[in-house]
């Protein structure tokens, strides 16, 4: 972003509880702040920073996360307060690029950092495409379980690969 532009930044907070630990999230076997929980907090900060940017720019719609590349470098135990900070670093048409970081404020330590991208889209168009997608899932339910699971796993990979094009391609 240019130096003359206002810095867009948002901070989100949470406390490490049993329900956002690695054990509860299924991402590990220790009672520490889970990486998926850290990622969700970072995305929440970026989503709110995106709202601030859109409001200040006269834009309407919503944003969806399309890329998250982070490192989780330090564990945080139950009871510690965590904050995530997202700062808008670049805008490329409908693509918003953020620097994200997470801190354990109780331990006064950086626990994670990275990059996150969000795209501005029309809420009704995105929801309309999701409704079409959910009807396709209902049809899959009629086939045998082992085929359903295989298709689900395959569709998850394909959905990740084509998410931006399918849900935002013509917005």
Strand content: 25-35%
List SSEs in N-to-C order.
EHHEEEEHH
Give me the secondary-structure category: alpha+beta
Distance between the ends: 24 Å
User: Which residues sit in consecutive blocks of at least 5 with pLDDT less than 50?
Assistant: 140-167
Could you please describe the fold and organization of this structure?
By secondary structure, this protein is α+β, with helices and mostly antiparallel strands. The protein is 40% helix and 31% strand. It has four helices and five strands, in the order βααββββαα. Strands 1-3-4-5-2 form a five-stranded antiparallel beta sheet. The longest helix is centred in the last third of the chain and has 24 residues, at 145-168. It is globular and about 40 Å long. Mean pLDDT is 83; it is low at 140-167.
Concise summary:
The chain has helices at residues 22-25, 35-57, 123-140, 145-168; strands at residues 9-15, 62-72, 81-92, 95-104, 109-121. It is an alpha+beta fold.
List the helices and strands and how they pair.
Blueprint: E1 9-15, H1 22-25, H2 35-57, E2 62-72, E3 81-92, E4 95-104, E5 109-121, H3 123-140, H4 145-168
Q: Keywords, please?
A:
171 residues, alpha+beta, five-stranded antiparallel β-sheet, 4 helices
